[in-house]
Design goal:
Its cofactor is Cu cation. By secondary structure, the chain is of the alpha/beta class. The chain has 2 domains: 1-31, no CATH class; 32-114, Cupredoxins -  blue copper proteins (Immunoglobulin-like), CATH 2.60.40.420. The protein contains 2 helices and 9 strands. The chain has helices spanning 3-16, 18-28, and strands at 33-39, 42-44, 47-50, 55-60, 70-71, 77-78, 87-91, 96-101, 109-114. The chain is globular and about 35 Å long. It starts with a helix and ends with a strand. Bound molecules: copper (II) ion. Copper (II) ion (CU) binds next to loops.
């Protein structure tokens, strides 16, 4: 990889896209938050890929059903029960596949892939 070429490309990005630069800086500090909606007894999206340091926020959009987010591989670590319009968030700092399901409804499954 010729370093001159990548330097040149980087310079172009810096010059042309301050908004993109801001986005990259935002990600570099691990402050990107991704949304997962809980609706119709489903996690949407069921599979989500994020970067190490990112945060995932689960929001319950049901009319009257409460849910939770439970990670069986981590000793059953579970969020508090989320009632309609409540949310819960977790930051992921280690790469891996984090399978989870809803505590009261184990058939509701999801996975967070941390790269
Ligand atoms: Cu549930």
């Amino acid at each position: 990889m010729p370093s001159g070429a990548s330097l040149f490309t980087g310079w172009l990005v810096l010059k042309r896209a301050p908004a993109l630069l801001a986005l990259v800086a935002f990600s570099a500090f691990g402050q990107t938050t991704h949304d997962v909606v809980i609706e119709g007894y489903q996690f949407v999206p069921a599979e989500l890929t994020i970067r190490s340091g990112d945060t995932v926020k689960w929001s319950n959009h049901e009319k009257r059903t409460s849910h939770s987010v439970l990670f069986p591989a981590e000793g059953g670590q579970e969020s508090e029960r989320l009632f309609p319009d409540e949310s819960w968030q977790r930051q992921f700092n280690q790469p891996g596949r984090y399978l989870y399901h809803c505590g009261p409804h184990p058939e509701m499954k999801g996975v967070i892939v941390v790269e």
